[in-house]
Amino acid sequence: MKLKDLAKKINAEVIGDKDKVISCISSIDNPSENTLVYVSSEKHVNKLSDLKVVFLAGIELELFLKHKNALIVSDPKKAFANVLEIFSSFKSDLSLDSEPFYKGKNVVIGSTPIFGLNVILEDNVVIGDNVFLSHNVVIKKNVEIGNNVSIDSGTVIGSEGFGNFRDSDDIWHHYHHIGSVKIGNNVSIGSNCSIDRGTIDSTEIGNGVIIDNLVHIAHNVVIGENTAIAAKVGIAGSCNIGKRNMIGGMVGIVDHINTVDDVIISATSTVNQDIKESGIYTGIMPISKHVTWKRIALWITKLDKIAKLVNLRKK
Predict the structure, then answer these.
(1) 28-65: per-residue pLDDT in tens?
(2) Would you please indicate which residues are annotated as catalytic (active-site) residues?
(3) Residue 85 contacts by C-beta under 8 Å, 6 or more apart in sequence?
(4) Helical spans, DSSP H, in 177-278
(5) What are the structural domains, with CATH classification, of the chain?
(6) CA within 13 Å, CB half, 257
(7) This prediction's pTM
């Protein structure tokens, strides 16, 4: 693609040869000739100064690129994401017409869908515009999916929830779940995730939510807008997660937990009580403010010395 054509797509200013053709994108560590390289500092520019690459950079680096071929943008991270999408061939060989999939009764599919192999859409599924469902994605009955949603391979949306009870003889019985799942707009869901349908009402995934691979979201959970959930997180039933939360990898959240907006939960933490104030939280013991946990952790490392001092004083 010529620089001038790419510049139009990402709203960039061209420095140097507007007709120069780039073949792909390469990294700072492994740059290739006639490729685009995203740089975020002067040292990166200097490192690649002798190579025939094209730079993608923010306005603050324009002075260092006067005699180079470059694309200058106001928001380089966003521009880089757009360039990756333009050059990506991940979805190019998939289409609704060319790949087989199963469609149940009363299914509604919006414009420009892209489906992989063995996609299953059960009865009464509603899918918005520009939705990408990769290989082996299963969308169970009555699920609603908004616009601009991406769901990667092996994920199941609307699976049966884990609702059970024991009778007087201590025998387990299952509550069947008749609710569904509602997914908002601009949502990204990774591979091999499971999002359970609600018991009666719907499990809800808000607009702009991003979910990594291997995440389980149980029945009746509500995930607030623009929340990010890393891999191997488990969220038990009937939790209400606030907007713009950031949940680290392998976090476990027990049932009926509520969190406010703008909460960050550190990786591997266990959340067993409501979080009522925005901030950073960490802990494998009862979760607490991050600053409090650091003080506790400091004392834990000194327990052996403290015990020795106590024993000496007893003697």
Answers:
(1) 999 899 999 999 999 988 888 888 899 999 999 999 99
(2) 219
(3) none
(4) none
(5) 3-87 (3.40.1390.10), 95-205 (2.160.10.10), 221-315 (2.160.10.10)
(6) 20
(7) 0.81
